[in-house]
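Dear colleague,

Thank you for sharing your sequence with our group. We've completed the structure prediction you requested, and as agreed, I am returning the results in plain text so they can be pasted directly into your records. Please verify that the sequence below matches your submission; if there's any discrepancy, let me know and we will rerun it promptly.
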Amino acid sequence: MSKCLVLFVEGDTEVEFYKRVIANARDKRPDRRFDTSIECRNVNGVGGFKNIALRKFVKEIKPKYDEDCVFTVVLCSDTDVFELSQKPPVKWDEVRKDMIQNGASKVITVKAKHSIEDWFLYDADGIVSFLRLKKGTKITGSTGYDKLMRLYKMANKIYYKGMKSNGMVEKLDIDKISESVKEQIAPLYKVLGVTI
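Please find the predicted C-alpha cells below.
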C-alpha cells in the first residue's frame, strides 16, 4: 500500500520553506528516507483552502497514485487573518470534512502564529546576512511581514508576500526556526516520523 503526504500552503514562499522543513526532517531520520511520497502545493492565499486545495487534491494529486494509496493532508496556514476577523475566511472543519470525503485518510493543520514571516524572523541573522546588511541591524515594524519588508527596503530590495524568495529561504536555519516554533510545527514533523 502506497502512502502520500500532501501539503497545501498559502504561497510560493511557503512552498520553498516547507520543502526545506521536509529536507530537514529527512536528514534527521536514521535512513535519511521517507516511506511516503510528498507533494507540496500552493493554494494562492488563505482563501484557496476553500476550493483550490480540494480541486488540486482530487484532479492533480489523487490521479497520480494507486487507488489504495493512503493520503495524509497537511493544511499549512498563517493565523493573522483569523485573529482579526469576526468572520473567518475559511471554516477548517468544512475543509477537513471535504478532504476526508474525497479520499484523505487524515487531515492535520500547521498554523504559523500570525504569519510565516514571523517564523522566518526567528533566524533574523540569516535574513540580515542574505540581504548583506550589517550584523546587528535593528529590526523594526509591527508585524513579521512589516519587519521583513523594512529589512528588504534597507537592502534596496522588495519582499513580496507569497512570491518566491529569490534565495532567502535557502539561507534560513531551519533547525533554529523549528525549535522556536516547536508547538506550531510539531504536527508536521510528527507525520514525517521525526521528533523535534
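Summary note from our side: DSSP finds ten helices and four strands in the chain.

Kind regards,
the structure core
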